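Deliverable D2.4 — example input (structure tokens):
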């Protein structure tokens, strides 16, 4: 997507000379996301904790990565920490800083860790999907409107 950090990310990619390896696609229709994720080996879900809404967020892309069986690097925010405790689908970083990201990428380059996360993704992708949540949500609404 775009987001409020897009311009900053483009500047960084140019500054580090990686524009040939980084693509900024902007908004991608949901039905086309998996096509792009099929070519990736790592998902990034990074935010600076500049507001409570960021700090307590749970981004859709986190679940897109799970459905694409793509290990990811996420912020060590409460929702991701709790999910990672249960499912270990990501490497978490505490600070939105280059050094922390580099350390997390190096961790992901460890084949044993990457394979462990990949196996976890295979197991959890059936649990953390919209089809399951849809049933819960419909039951919730049915109960509310039945009273």
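Example output (designed residues):
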């Amino acid at each position: 997507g775009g987001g409020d950090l897009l311009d900053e990310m483009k500047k960084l990619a140019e500054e580090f000379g990686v524009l040939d390896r980084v693509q900024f696609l902007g908004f991608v229709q949901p039905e086309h996301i998996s096509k792009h994720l099929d070519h990736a080996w790592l998902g990034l879900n990074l935010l600076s904790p500049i507001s409570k809404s960021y700090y307590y967020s749970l981004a859709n892309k986190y679940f897109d990565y799970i459905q694409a069986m793509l290990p990811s690097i996420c912020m060590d925010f409460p929702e991701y920490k709790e999910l990672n405790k249960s499912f270990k689908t990501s490497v978490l970083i505490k600070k939105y800083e280059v050094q922390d990201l580099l350390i997390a990428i190096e961790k992901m380059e460890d084949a044993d860790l990457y394979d462990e996360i990949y196996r976890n993704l295979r197991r959890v992708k059936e649990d953390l999907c919209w089809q399951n949540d849809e049933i819960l949500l419909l039951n919730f609404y049915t109960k509310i409107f039945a009273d």
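Residues 6 and 24 are 8 Å apart (CA to CA).
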